[in-house]
Design a protein that fits this description.
Number of strands: 15
Order of helices and strands: HHHEEHEEEEEEEEEHEHEHEEH
Structural class: alpha+beta
Bound molecules: 2,5-anhydro-1,6-di-O-phosphono-D-glucitol, manganese (II) ion
Strand order of the largest sheet: 4-3-5-6-7-8-9-10
Radius of gyration: 20 Å
Shape: globular
Helix content: 25-40%
């Protein structure tokens, strides 16, 4: 067909998910409806973030969250929008957010079969200086009975879908429903996410490592050895480049597209590191595996972890398959 058929054959995220759904004849479109509400939330946050500076939406909200972090106005606004959008979808029964100490149990009349875990605004420390931030989400199925907190404490390998939306130079939504990873870019003139990165595969090995070297004093042996190897390779190969943005969504998106490794290790001060299992580690690990990479906690495959608490943290090493293999070998040697 004509050269610019793709320009008229718009593959929106809704159409893409409907195509996926058609592969499951038994499905009644619930997932598609849930996703359309998550997409609505992302469009709202994208718009709020882009005019945050103008609309006095920067700075602190004056509260502190369960993480002990001072909440930014955008943290609170994004959280409110996602909670309301997810409840109004009528397809969720439990919601877990970084910004809420307790899980939200949707009242029975509006309850669906999905549990959504999410970080409404990731990289909050970067809001006021205009560096990319994002939203991260993961979706579990909860079977029929009255939902309890145990229904949320599932290993990441049980997730049906995971994704993130990055609010940067463009608004990019990266999603996996378990059969690979696809990237969509928001066309503001249409208000639609259009497929721009079909079937993303992470390079098998990368030339970039991404870690907050400011924590080096407290790192354990294997992490110290690995970073040393990146900087002073013994095999005559050239040193890796260091890229660290400080928003997990941005660091992971670059790792997914360019290859390399992202590390948030544990250390003497925080043995479980900083990143939260349910709504940061699991969704990003799910995406990395779906793109042909891997994700490791320093002990086990990240998706095999079974969380005991909602806001539990874990060290995480994720990215190109071969790069993560190297750090796994260093931890195995130390075990
Ligand atoms: P959040 O803004 O949702 O609390 O997450 C911030 C996280 C993550 O985005 C990033 O990778 C990490 O904090 C950066 O931590 P450091 O500043 O300690 O490097
Ligand atoms: Mn936070
Ligand atoms: Mn976060
Ligand atoms: Mn956050």
């Amino acid at each position: 067909h004509s050269a610019d058929a793709h320009r008229t054959d718009l593959m929106t995220i809704t159409r893409f998910v409907l195509n996926e759904q058609s592969k499951h004849p038994e499905s009644r479109g619930d997932f598609t409806i849930l996703l359309s509400h998550i997409v609505l939330g992302c469009k709202f946050v994208c718009s709020a973030v882009s005019k945050a500076g103008l609309a006095k939406l920067i700075g602190l909200a004056g509260e502190t969250n369960v993480q002990g972090e001072e909440q930014k106005k955008l943290d609170v606004l994004s959280n409110d929008v996602f909670i309301k959008a997810l409840i109004s979808s009528g397809r969720t029964c439990i919601l877990v957010s970084e910004e809420d100490e307790e899980a939200t149990f949707v009242e029975p009349s509006n309850r669906g079969k999905y549990c959504v875990v999410f970080d409404p605004l990731d990289g909050s420390s970067n809001i006021d200086c205009g560096v990319s931030i994002g939203t991260i989400f993961g979706i579990y199925m909860v079977d029929g009975h009255d939902p309890t907190i145990e229904d949320v404490l599932q290993p990441g390998k049980n997730m049906l879908a995971a994704g993130y939306c990055m609010y940067g130079s463009s608004c990019t939504l990266v999603l996996s429903t378990g059969t690979g990873v696809n990237g969509f870019t928001l066309d503001p003139s249409l208000g639609e996410f259009i497929l721009t990165h079909p079937d993303i595969k992470i390079p098998k090995k990368g030339k970039i490592y991404s870690v907050n070297e400011g924590n080096a004093k407290n790192w354990d042996g294997p992490t110290t050895k690995y970073v040393e190897k990146c900087k002073f390779p013994k095999d005559g190969s050239s040193p890796k480049s260091l890229r660290y943005i400080g928003s997990m969504v941005a660091d992971v998106h670059r790792t997914l597209l360019y290859g390399g490794i992202f590390l948030y290790p544990g250390d003497k001060k925080s043995p479980n590191g900083k990143l939260r299992v349910l709504y940061e580690v699991f969704p990003m690990s799910f995406l990395m595996e779906q793109a042909g990479g891997q994700a490791f906690t320093g002990k086990i495959r990240a998706l095999d972890l079974v969380p005991k608490k909602l806001h539990e943290r874990s060290p995480i090493f994720l990215g190109s398959y071969d790069d993560v293999e190297e750090i796994k070998a260093l931890y195995a040697a130390e075990a």
